[in-house]
């Protein structure tokens, strides 16, 4: 295949569980692709729509805002959409495709890989309208952000959508995680924190640097012949 049909690989980066405007500023300066705001009721990083509104306004152009839910009711999701204007929704609970797609925004569906792990063999059929998936280390019914990883070899090889790796990632292991899984994107929360919801600028910087080094080590990806 000629070089014109190959492009440098770029792993997408999402920083999740942001609660402070200074952390949003660092994330934007580092060029991350998305930041996540958590509205799940049991999360230690939970924020209200009113808290997030100024953080959302501080985002640079082309940095996506992700609103994360876990079995929240439809009224809460709509309130967040009206107040925060997220780019994409992310669901971590027992929500089905009809519920996730009912709000008229793209959505990611998290797949719990902790414990016995969730069914991942028919994700495309069960969540036909999902934009992508996120494989996380929490067990079914539990919230994420635990700081623990899972066995990456259990990720389905034929995932029908782009997918992000989450759970236990930090600046010292994300390089190997990308090389081992060839994931489309990485999602980090506790691995770049000094306390729940409070990000550490140095860890954020080291994490992004490690992702970029991994991309350089993995090399290039093949593109469609149409390119």
UniProtKB/TrEMBL annotation:
Keywords (A to Z) from UniProt: Amino-acid biosynthesis, Aromatic amino acid biosynthesis, Isomerase, Tryptophan biosynthesis
InterPro entries from the UniProt entry: Aldolase_TIM, PRAI_dom, RibuloseP-bd_barrel, TrpF_fam
EC main group: isomerase
One Pfam family of this chain: PRAI
Gene Ontology molecular function, alphabetical: isomerase activity
Pathway in which this enzyme or protein is active: Amino-acid biosynthesis; L-tryptophan biosynthesis; L-tryptophan from chorismate: step 3/5
Key word Isomerase present: yes
Boundaries of every N-(5'phosphoribosyl) anthranilate isomerase (PRAI) domain copy: 14-209
Family recorded in the similarity comment: Belongs to the TrpF family.
UniProt name for this protein: N-(5'-phosphoribosyl)anthranilate isomerase
Lineage of producing organism: Bacteria, Pseudomonadati, Pseudomonadota, Gammaproteobacteria, Lysobacterales
């Amino acid at each position: 295949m000629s070089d014109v049909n190959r492009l440098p690989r770029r792993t997408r980066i999402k920083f999740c569980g942001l609660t402070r405007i200074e952390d949003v500023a660092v994330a934007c300066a580092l060029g991350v692709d998305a930041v996540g705001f958590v509205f799940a009721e049991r999360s230690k990083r939970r924020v209200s729509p009113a808290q997030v509104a100024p953080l959302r306004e501080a985002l640079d152009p082309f940095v996506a805002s992700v609103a994360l839910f876990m079995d929240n009711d439809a009224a809460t999701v709509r309130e967040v959409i009206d107040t925060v204007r997220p780019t994409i929704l992310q669901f971590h609970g027992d929500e089905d495709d009809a519920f996730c797609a009912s709000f008229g925004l793209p959505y990611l569906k998290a797949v719990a890989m902790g414990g016995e792990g969730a069914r991942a063999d028919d994700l495309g059929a069960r969540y036909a309208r999902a934009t992508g998936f996120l494989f996380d280390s929490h067990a079914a019914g539990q919230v994420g952000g635990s700081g623990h990883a899972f066995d990456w070899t259990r990720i389905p090889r034929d995932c029908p959508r782009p997918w992000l790796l989450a759970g236990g990632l930090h600046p010292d292991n994300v390089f190997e995680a990308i090389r081992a899984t060839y994931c489309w994107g990485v999602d980090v929360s506790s691995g770049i924190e000094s306390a729940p919801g409070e990000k550490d600028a140095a860890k954020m910087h080291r994490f992004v640097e490690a992702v970029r080094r991994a991309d350089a080590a993995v090399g290039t990806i093949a593109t469609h012949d149409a390119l």
